[in-house]
Amino acid sequence: MEKHFYYECTRRLCSSLQLETSLKHYFDYVRDSVPLDGLFINVYRKEFNDIQFIAQASETQASTLDIQVSLPEGLAKTLEDPDRPRVRIVNDIDHDPVTSQVAPKVIPGIRSLIILRMSMEDTHLGIVGFYSKSAGTFRPRHADMLAPQMSTFALITALNLRGRNLLLENQALAKQNVSLKR
Question: Looking at the whole model, is its pTM more than 0.85?
Answer without folding.
Answer: yes
